[in-house]
Amino acid sequence: MRYAYALTAALLLGGTAITVTSNQPLGAQTAQNEGMQAAAPRGAPASLADMVERLQPAVVNISTRQRVQVENPFAGTPFGDMFGGGRPQTRQAQSLGSGFLISADGYIVTNNHVVSAGAAGASVDSITVTLTNREEYSATLVGRDPATDLAVLKIDAKKPLPFVKFGDSTHARVGDWVVAIGNPYALSGTVTAGIISAVHRSTGGTYDRFIQTDASINQGNSGGPMFDMNGNVIGINSQILSPSGGNVGIGFAIPAEQAIPIIDTLRKGQAIKRGYLGVQISPLGDDMAESLGLARNRGEFVQGVEPGQGADKAGIKAGDVIVRVNNRDVTPDETLSFIVSTLPIGSRVPIELIRNGKRTTVTAVVGQRPPEDQLAFSRDDQDDFSQQDDKQSSAQAGQQALGLAVLPLTPTILRQLGLEQTVRGVVISAVDDDSDAAAKGLRRGDVILSANNAPVTTEAQLNAVIKSATDSGRNALLLQVLRRGQSPAFIGVRLRGR
């Protein structure tokens, strides 16, 4: 549901003068467009045909087949036993998008959302890549980064494949011409053109630094390439801004400068690592900026500091205003989170801040950013973990053998739960209502200390105990559970389908 670029009304842009002459007798009719030739916009080629002809074979169509679990409409009715016993039913679904080859041996770049399950309870069964010559290949997902909406696929062909290379998006300017090729509404090989409307555009995400374009963007173009006039990829079409779901001339592409290091890492099969300071921040309001003598849109306010992380060790405190990090100004376009995420883990960086109206500089060591699902529970220390709701965790719980979704304990979560920092285990983030765990009273915020008397501090350890139990023919697990304000208790929980 994302993509980029619009058709250019070249015929209306050149200020073309048209002179019509005729030697025909008076009263003879002449077609309005006879002898007409429009001038190309200044700086643009008269035609994009030669460039498109070379680029088009490297752009591919990507489709997925998915299984989606839906609620049984007869659940809870007298007909429930007749129609699957009221259990959720499985339906088939399909998604379409675009991508492009970046190597002759079949590596492909696309958007993460193109190859991800489109709904809670859904799973992707297969990914198919179709070339412009209609050859089809089964694709393997090499790696993905949901935070930046990027993914890398691989197909195996018996011959070298056409591919394109990245350009330098740092030189992109507002007003530059761009071309996009993709598959909107499954119309393969569609070419559109337009101009860059803005750069460094944020739509609210931590890592948003989009190139905005006025070109036509529609469903199915997600993951397709944005080319400059030299035929180099300077962006990956990703999102649209539209009240109706159709093109309104506002589309966004991930700039090549941001995509290249992530794609290179994913291509190697490695996980994406980002810098982290351990601060909760908020934008600096106008009144506060004025009281501190700061210009508008400069700096971010520190709401809290996570103990033991880089900011805490550097002496940063709640109430500070961070204005510069590693000699880069903190602005709405260059947010603190974005700047820090790009810094090497373990590097020592100067941080300029304002405290009590005075500027000072501290040095912090950049840590590694925790997984996003953990951060989702630690962005506000005032929130009670056990009272929050998380649809993604709920969907995961429905697919687990215990009917539980769990996360590693962090110092922040322990504080939110009112537990000692010495507690070790995994915290329940969601419980499936139809599971035995729910029937036994387990709930979000409970901490599992052990399973079958084996300590568990990660989801992988818990899954290993579950596998050992099922391999031994056991139908249930003995969990030691800790709840705030209570002593640990042992609870037997039956596994699904056992």
Automatic annotation (TrEMBL):
<feature type="domain" description="PDZ">
    <location>
        <begin position="406"/>
        <end position="485"/>
    </location>
</feature>
<comment type="similarity">
    <text>Belongs to the peptidase S1C family.</text>
</comment>
<keyword id="KW-0378">Hydrolase</keyword>
<feature type="active site" description="Charge relay system">
    <location>
        <position position="149"/>
    </location>
</feature>
<protein>
    <recommendedName>
        <fullName>Probable periplasmic serine endoprotease DegP-like</fullName>
        <ecNumber>3.4.21.107</ecNumber>
    </recommendedName>
</protein>
<dbReference type="Pfam" id="PF13365">
    <property type="entry name" value="Trypsin_2"/>
</dbReference>
<dbReference type="InterPro" id="IPR009003">
    <property type="entry name" value="Peptidase_S1_PA"/>
</dbReference>
<keyword id="KW-0645">Protease</keyword>
<dbReference type="InterPro" id="IPR036034">
    <property type="entry name" value="PDZ_sf"/>
</dbReference>
<feature type="signal peptide">
    <location>
        <begin position="1"/>
        <end position="22"/>
    </location>
</feature>
<dbReference type="GO" id="GO:0004252">
    <property type="term" value="F:serine-type endopeptidase activity"/>
</dbReference>
<dbReference type="GO" id="GO:0006508">
    <property type="term" value="P:proteolysis"/>
</dbReference>
<keyword id="KW-0720">Serine protease</keyword>
<dbReference type="InterPro" id="IPR001940">
    <property type="entry name" value="Peptidase_S1C"/>
</dbReference>
<feature type="active site" description="Charge relay system">
    <location>
        <position position="222"/>
    </location>
</feature>
<keyword id="KW-0677">Repeat</keyword>
<keyword id="KW-0346">Stress response</keyword>
<feature type="region of interest" description="Disordered">
    <location>
        <begin position="368"/>
        <end position="394"/>
    </location>
</feature>
<feature type="domain" description="PDZ">
    <location>
        <begin position="262"/>
        <end position="342"/>
    </location>
</feature>
<dbReference type="InterPro" id="IPR001478">
    <property type="entry name" value="PDZ"/>
</dbReference>
<feature type="binding site">
    <location>
        <position position="149"/>
    </location>
    <ligand>
        <name>substrate</name>
    </ligand>
</feature>
<feature type="active site" description="Charge relay system">
    <location>
        <position position="113"/>
    </location>
</feature>
<dbReference type="Pfam" id="PF13180">
    <property type="entry name" value="PDZ_2"/>
</dbReference>
<keyword id="KW-0732">Signal</keyword>
<feature type="binding site">
    <location>
        <position position="113"/>
    </location>
    <ligand>
        <name>substrate</name>
    </ligand>
</feature>
<keyword id="KW-0574">Periplasm</keyword>
<dbReference type="InterPro" id="IPR011782">
    <property type="entry name" value="Pept_S1C_Do"/>
</dbReference>
<feature type="binding site">
    <location>
        <begin position="220"/>
        <end position="222"/>
    </location>
    <ligand>
        <name>substrate</name>
    </ligand>
</feature>
